[in-house]
Write a structure and sequence with these properties.
Blueprint (H helix, E strand, L loop, with lengths): L2 H18 L27 H7 L4 H7 L13 H4 L7 E5 L5 H10 L4 E6 L2 H18 L4 E5 L12 E7 L8 H11 E14 L5 H4 L2 H5 L6 E2 H11 L1 E9 L1 H8 L3 H9 L10 E10 L7 H4 L1
Parallel strand pairs: 1-2, 1-4, 2-3, 4-5, 5-6
Antiparallel strand pairs: 5-8, 7-8
């Protein structure tokens, strides 16, 4: 597939999820996180709050802050938790979807801070903007905004952001080196990266790499760990740490998630998805290239 084909497919898939309201109502297996179909084969995994709890979110905090419809169950980690946000900071969320992480970051940076969400899907952007009124009603804050744009070409000024977050989105990009260059461009000197994403531990078999379901499901488009570090260093990011979170893939692999069933069937006999791919917390700062931290070098 060409870069245009990939971007179009991703936009259509996530637009479908936005229009449906939740992945569980989408008409096919789609999106990061558990795959959902109309036949109810993943009914046990179709609760976005259950998935959020499993990957480290505080469900009580979600209920207090999030407006209805902001959590679409598309996460593979909790980038806001690893960002150590401070009042007054400016946060940029790449692939912000319906606003899930943006709304959770808003109270942490407070009225003097700002959260900017960027998404290329018109339907997601419309949903996020519609959700903003509910966020303000719940928190009393008006510090979150959403912009239309591609993460390879961010609609954000140079050196204007304190923290860049992203949740299971960079793997979907057809030009990942450009994404990392854009992250470095918009960060202030000393600015931080706090990303949750899918990363390959070893190359996937061609039978998996060629599945479009595996691409939009955040598997086939994932980069190898060494390649992620190289792209980040070349972009000018330093103090890089990549911390594996294997429980996410293990949970999906042990259940009846359709995508992970397909992946398991395509692997060599005895192979498991967790041997090939994992969710990772990825952290870095803008600065001179430096050796990665112990979490990724061990």
């Amino acid at each position: 597939m060409t870069q245009i084909d990939i971007r179009t497919t991703v936009r259509e898939t996530y637009g479908e999820i936005a229009r449906a309201g939740t992945p569980g109502k989408a008409g096919r297996s789609s999106g990061c996180g558990p795959s959902f179909t109309t036949n109810g084969c993943c009914a046990a995994a179709a609760d976005p709050n259950a998935l959020a709890s499993a990957i480290g979110y505080d469900v009580g905090e979600l209920a207090k802050i999030l407006p209805e419809g902001a959590n679409l169950g598309l996460s593979c980690g909790n980038p806001g938790a690893i960002a150590a946000l401070k009042p007054g900071e400016i946060v940029l969320d790449l692939g912000s979807g319906a606003g899930f992480d943006c709304f959770l970051c808003g109270p942490k940076v407070g009225a003097s801070g700002r959260v900017i969400g960027v998404d290329m899907t018109h339907d997601m952007l419309a949903k996020a903007r519609a959700n903003t009124a509910g966020y303000t009603q719940r928190t009393g804050l008006a510090n979150v905004e959403f912009r239309l744009g591609e993460i390879e070409h961010l609609p954000v000024a140079d050196a204007s952001v304190d923290v860049v977050i992203s949740n299971c989105v960079i793997n979907l990009s057809p030009d990942k080196p450009q994404v990392w260059r854009e992250i470095a461009r918009v960060l202030k000197p000393g600015g931080r990266v706090a990303v949750s994403d899918m990363v390959l531990l070893k190359p996937l078999p061609e039978a998996v790499r060629s599945q479009i379901e595996a691409y939009v499901g955040c598997v086939a488009g994932a980069s190898l760990l060494d390649d992620v570090q190289s792209m980040m260093r070349e972009a000018g990011l330093a103090d890089i740490t990549l911390t594996p979170k294997p429980a996410y893939v293990e949970t999906l692999s042990q259940g009846d998630d359709p995508l992970y069933q397909q992946i398991r069937a395509a692997l060599p006999a005895g192979g498991t998805p967790g041997e090939y791919i994992t969710s990772m917390d990825i952290a870095a700062v803008k600065g001179e290239a430096a050796c990665c931290g112990t979490a990724c070098c061990a």
